[in-house]
């Protein structure tokens, strides 16, 4: 997959950066840097193009995901992350997923497919990526979720449902809400940083 890797300081974690629809592998580098300037950064570009806009998986309509493609792309991304860990010598268990919107959705899909693999995740405006009768354990994967109270795409009801799914999977979830719809704002990056710093 198209990507950028910026090595950080030794023993510091790696941030796996997953952009929103229309973004690219460089989009979240600044956010990763703001959260921990010493972290390694792996920015990845989604393999799907929707009317010229890069994404991580296909959708049938806004908010209606192509579940088969989502499963395929989730495996593809997971395999890519593991290959990148070998190439760039980082430990997946010491890496955090950071995703915005479509990137947060595939990050959620990675978590709900593979369970406890990553050190944690920061999901900025995520939706419920998949609904299953059984979810893997996320006991050792703390999750930060930020959302807009007035976000028409990722509605508060859906955010609450996602938080409940992660909690059922035994994850410790921290939510942050703002009033600026689907927008990614400085306050939520600051909150993500505060949350991340409190873990360490
Ligand atoms: C998605 O398709 O993943 C969501 O609708 C969010 C987005 O459009 O990026």
TrEMBL record:
Pfam families: DLH. It comes from Brochothrix campestris FSL F6-1037. Transmembrane segments: none annotated. Residues 79-176 form the Dienelactone hydrolase domain. This is Carboxylesterase. InterPro entries: AB_hydrolase_fold, Dienelactn_hydro. GO terms for molecular function: hydrolase activity.
